[in-house]
Amino acid sequence: MPERQDYRALLWAIAALAGGLLLHIDRLPAWVWVAALVLVSWRIAAARSRVPLPGTPARTLLAVAVVIAVLARFHTLNGLPAGSALLVLMAALKLLETHRRRDRLVLVGAGLFLLLAACLDRQSLARAPLYLGEAWLACAALAVIASDGFPGRAALALAGRTLLLAMPLAVLLFLFFPRLAASFWSVPRGEEALTGLSETMSPGSIGKLSTSYDVAFRARFEGELPANEQRYWRGPVLHDFDGTTWTRGSEGGRPRPALEFAGRAYRYRLALEPSRLHWWFALDTPAQSPDPGVTLTHDYELLASRPVSDPISFEALSYLATRSAAPLGGWERHENTDLPRGHNLRTVELARDLRARAASDAAFVTATLDYLRSGGFVYSLEPEALGTEQVDDFLFRTRTGFCGHYASAFVVLMRAAHVPARVVTGYLGGEWNPSGGYLVVRQADAHAWAEVWLEGRGWTRVDPTAVVEPERLQRGAFDLLSESMPASTRLLRAAPWLVHMLQRWDAANAWWNDRVVRFDYATQLDVLERLGIRSPDARTLGWAFVLVLLTWLGVIAWYLGRSMRPRRPDAIARAYALLCRKLSRTGLVRAPHQGSLAYAEALRARHPSLAEDAHALLAQYARLRYGAPEPATRARDIEAFAGAVRRLRIARA
Amino acid sequence: MKMPFAALARARMAAWVRRRQGPDVLPATLARRRLYILPTRAGLAFGFLWILMLLAGLNYGNSLALFFTFLLAGFALVAMHECHRNLLGLTLVSVDAPALFAGSAGVLELVLQNPAPRTRPGVQAALDDGPLAGVGLPPRARARLTLPLAPARRGILRIERLRLTSSHPFGLFRTWTWVHLPIEVLVYPQPCGSLPRPITSGHAAGLSSRGGSGLDEWMGLRPFRDGDSPRQVDWKAYARGAPLLVKEYRPAGADLCLFDFAQLRIPDVETRLSQLARWVVDAEAGGERYGLTLPAVVLAPNRGPEHRHRCLAALALHGIEAPAASAARAAAMAPLHA
Lengths: 653, 338
Fold this sequence. Notes:
Chain A is an alpha+beta fold.
């Protein structure tokens, strides 16, 4: 029944395509996969019950509509999200004209291409099995499509075994295939940011981030770890305040002020998770830029020229104590004391009052912190909404807030008294992962603090949140405000064994990112060196590569071919074949249907003079092959028979 | 005559393969050195896709994309071996072709044996580059494969070579081998022509004693066969919805016919042979005794399938082979089904 087989092949092709589509399901707009689903259902309905398929003009119209829809949504056909959406829709359209084997193969090809796009998009450990599953499905679909009526289960088994046999080669190629140092062609990747700190901060914005359990980065230190209360990871520094939102302010190629570093130098390797943002994070004050593509800005931020769309790791050097002898420039002083005029008047009044009673700026900072400590402020993830005069409302009415509120209010207080101050956003904390031996910093550890300019010391970190909730220095927001966290996140930290298991999983992810995802030319050389090949030249590597490939091919050929070769005949059959060959010299060849005894009769009739041995041997063969077994003497008998055959002399007729 | 380049290349290739492999004898077991393998069109498309994946993976330094690219490369290489082994060790046990009429459809029957303890799905065969016929072989089993034959001309159809092939399991590669066997199929002339059978009265032949009435004797209806005269078709029955039937008459008083090549007044030899074949077939179907006289062969009156075959073979080989060789060949190519 060819029709039934065609239908099965079609379903498998659809499965391969749908597998690829599922890998992108959370990245594609809903209408894309709804449209794909409709097209697939249409095709299945057509195959089952003669629902008409559209003709060529209708299909052309649909194709044009798809291109327009994708253009309208993404404003481009280039790039990963638009490309995947287009591929999904075009493949689903292709379904409507899938009648022949070639068309079905095109669908499987589209499935494999979607797999590639998914790899380019995300490479996390958790998704790797999904990718493998899609590869498996596509290969099995190839088998079903290629051989009419090949059963699905057998196809899966066959494809699975083939992929397993291919695995050693894949690993070898992965380790030794030469990589490119730089890319030669660039397609824009998705621009939508994942979770992560943004370049602006309004008091509530960090609180939203705090419910995310996602890893922001991991840091592996050489030697001692910084103490809990010193794990400030610097991110965007914000200067401009419009009354509700803090922004970075004017860029401009300002020179970086020279700093004197003091105390311990912390060296560590920091591995960033993809955020699609330009920020790289470093402990407190980084002393240098870790990468040519990353600028160490005048605020000692690390700003990359390209967004972080793949896991990145870098070596960094930081100091916890800095000093700046140079005075603050006029423009900087103005920028860091500027406030929107005519707003938050009560706050301004409070600041002036506190400053008037303090002997110095440093004393004023202490007095302000004392005010916050003793003013009945509450650390909470769910503060009341603030009115238009945000800071007044917060300081004198709600008195409830998250780190953003405190940092913002503190900087406004400082600026109101003409003390230069700015907001720094980043992360505070880091959980020690004993399985992996590194600190893991989550999005929930996002934090905002303040920096104040003090004469003779330069920019000095002040964390008003730590005054309100000193525990925050020791523990993450997760543990402090667990009742505000989503239930799923609370569940993750419910039991110590679960936390321990998740740490193991995180360590596996770290290993994966480190060893697999970031495997590049440098790592390749490293692996070779560990194998004892120092500074290999291309030719040696090439030969080694060819040798390994040929060995693998030989093993595969042997393994697959071993059961297919006809079995070697046993000793009796070999001796019998030799006997028949010798006897054929008489001119009487044994016919294929002739038994040994019949052959002996024919020989006797034709060549009565033939040595009696020959007849005896033919009879002996029949006895050995078909007679009652005599286990005791069998081996010896066979030996004797074979020997006699070898000694037999037959003259050519 | 100048051959087009492709055809010339193919002919050269075929000659080379024949020289390389030597003639085959049955049973022929397919050894490693005679199995050829190349990617199919799907395989080439897969290769193209693979190169795109490799370039993308290298360009972005994307480890996972590269890993899956390499996995698919390994997959294709293993698939190549799996394809190759599907024919490796397969045995062609016999090739058999019953004689057939020119212009009709016949079959070449191959028997394949799988000596291995594994199934071999999707084993296909073809005449040279003809259409493929496929079969799946269970472990240690035999299977029959029939290839369609439709010779246009009578004589001996020589099948230069057979192709055994498979693209199992993934259709990315096709492995094949050529089998060179002395396969010769006897093709009878197409029975055709509407001349009345010569009524050789028993008296004239001196062999029959039955008196003739001079009128054809109604014998009955039989199904239409290729070459039957439209004048003999029972059109009335056909109009009533019956299948095509032919009215058969036996020449009155004669159960002996003598067909003589020389006495037929048809200028074209092939048409004459077709007419003779028509008569032989009809006479045999009518249960009559008939004899055949050709310039080189005289077959005494007789009947039965063997006689029919001898007559038709003589017609088939007329002017092609010397009579002695022709008789031997006719004997060798006797139909299996009596």
